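Hi everyone,

Forwarding the result from last night's run.
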Amino acid sequence: MFKKQHIALLLFALVSIKTLLVPVVYLDFELRKEYIIKNLCENRFQPQLHCDGKCYLAINVFTNWLKTMLLKKPKNTPLSSKKWWKTYLKN
């Protein structure tokens, strides 16, 4: 019984961490917004676009989503092929 409780707590902790991942990315973005705009934004040399670091945020959210999808999908889906993302990014 004691072992089952530890396993349940471990699974709960893993689900909680996974659930909090996207809000943590947004929090990181908001806390470091000025630094991201000045140093990490892909459009920092084109201020007329008014990106304000949203490109960096979008890349991070997409990367986390992509990792989640690759971990979730069974092997017989198109996501399991190694070149599917190249086709997706070209569109």
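The longest helix spans residues 54-72.

Cheers,
N.
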